[in-house]
Amino acid sequence: MSFQTSVNYTWPQGYPGAIASANPRRSVISPEAGFRAGPSGLTIAAFAWVNQDGITVSNTGSGKPAGFVHRDQQGLTTQYLQSSTMLIPGGFGITLSEGGDYWAISSQTASRGDSVYASTTDGSIQTGPTGKAPQGAVDTGWTVSQGGDAGSPIIITGPLS
Questions:
Q1: Nearest to residue 116, comparing CAs of 148, 77, 75?
Q2: Burial class of 44 by CB neighbour count within 10 A (0 to 12, 13 to 18, 19+)
Q3: Which pLDDT score, from 0 to 100, does residue 5 have?
Q4: CA–CA distance from 50 to each of 13, 21, 65, 66, 117 (Å)?
Q5: Do residues 150 and 125 make contact, with C-beta atoms less than 8 angstroms apart?
Q6: Residues of the chain with pLDDT under 70
Q7: Most distant pair of Cα atoms in the chain: their distance
Q8: Distance between CA atoms of 144 and 40, rounded to whole angstroms?
Q9: What is the distance between the alpha carbons of residues 53 and 76, in angstroms, rounded to a whole number?
Q10: d(CA 152, CA 38)
Q11: Kindly report the CA angle at 159 between 55 and 138, in degrees rounded to 5?
Q12: What's residue 74's pLDDT?
């Protein structure tokens, strides 16, 4: 653990991957043994795809992602003296969300009503006008409910159909 170098005067609005409201939310139905993070691990607060075996999940894929990797005590600090992580180690059980309100970080400025896109190479979030997916990203079906500047916390909402 490193030495403290700053003090925040206010609490942050939200933390990436955390539940953002008390509204209903849904999990992706998993196979009998549950989903498992792929061999390279799984990044929290990003979108993910279920691999061909139907069990392992990774932050890379094509087509619409299976769900959002929410932060619900899923990460595990495995490095010596590590203070935090946003990575679920390979082989560990995971839960994917397919609906609800979650805090996230977008690489672009996000406005309420923007569509949420997922990078097919790492599952990271990008936002923009509906129907205009950035290069190397796919539409997730999620939208921005509370916007913000690039790199700051926003709230994304998944469909509850």
A1: 148
A2: buried
A3: 83
A4: 31, 26, 8, 6, 17
A5: no
A6: 1-2, 73-78, 81-84, 161
A7: 47
A8: 29
A9: 24
A10: 28
A11: 65
A12: 61
